[in-house]
Design goal:
By secondary structure, the protein is of the alpha/beta class. The chain has eight helices and five strands; from the N terminus they run H-H-E-H-E-H-E-H-H-E-H-E-H. 52% of the residues lie in helices and 9% in strands. Strand 4, helix 7 and strand 5 (157-159) form a beta-alpha-beta unit. Helix 5 (101-108) runs parallel beside helix 7. It is elongated. The model is unreliable at 23-36 and 39-54 (pLDDT under 50). This is Thiosulfate:glutathione sulfurtransferase-like.
Length: 172
C-alpha cells in the first residue's frame, strides 16, 4: 500500500467518525443544529432514572385550559413558558415568563434574589402549588416538569395543551 493511500484513508476515517459522532450526539441529546448541548443536558440524557419520570401525564400533574384561565384571572400562578425565545416573541400566554427548556435546570437552581433579578418575578418555591410550565404542544413542558420534580418542585404542573390549545381556545 502506498504511503499516500494510508494518509488518505486515515483522513476519510477521521472525517466520517466526526460526522457520525456529531449526529449521534444530536440524536441522543435531542438538540437541533442551531443549539449546542450543555454538559448538564448530556449528562441528564445518560443518567436520568428518576422514578417520577413519565408522571407528567398523571391528571394531578396536568392543568387544563379552564384551570389555567382561572389561575390567570385570580393572579394565582407562576407560569413558565419553556419554548425558545423566538417562539415566545411570536406570541405567548399573558404573564408567562420565558425560560427556555435548555436553561430551566440552571435557572431553578438560582438563588431567589438572582432569579428575581434575572427574570423580574419572584422565584418559585419548592412547595408552591401554582407553578405551571407550558410550551407549544405539551412535550417540552412535560420534560420541564420532570426536571423541576427532580429538583424538588414536587407540586409543579404543566399545561398539556400548550400554546396551540391556548390560541385555539382564545379564538372561540
Amino acid at each position: 500500500m502506498k504511503p499516500f493511500q494510508i494518509l488518505y484513508d486515515a483522513l476519510i476515517f477521521t472525517m466520517l467518525s466526526y460526522v457520525l459522532t456529531r449526529s449521534f450526539c444530536q440524536v441522543v441529546t435531542g438538540v437541533h443544529r442551531c443549539s449546542y448541548p450543555t454538559y448538564v443536558s448530556v449528562l441528564r440524557a445518560f443518567t436520568t432514572s428518576s422514578p417520577k419520570s413519565g408522571d407528567a401525564s398523571d391528571s394531578a400533574s396536568v392543568v387544563t385550559y379552564s384551570q389555567l384561565k382561572t389561575m390567570l384571572s385570580n393572579h394565582n400562578i407562576q407560569l413558565f413558558d419553556v419554548r425558545n425565545p423566538d417562539e415566545y416573541q411570536a406570541g405567548h400566554i399573558p404573564d408567562a415568563v420565558n425560560i427556555p427548556l435548555g436553561n430551566l435546570e440552571e435557572s431553578l437552581k438560582l438563588s431567589p434574589a438572582t432569579f428575581q433579578q434575572k427574570f423580574d418575578v419572584k422565584a418559585p418555591g419548592k412547595e408552591d402549588e401554582n407553578i405551571v410550565f407550558h410550551c407549544r404542544s405539551g412535550k417540552r413542558s412535560a420534560q420541564a416538569l420532570d426536571i423541576a420534580r427532580q429538583l424538588g418542585f414536587s407540586r409543579a404542573r404543566h399545561y398539556k395543551g400548550g400554546y396551540i390549545e391556548w390560541e385555539e381556545q382564545e379564538r372561540k
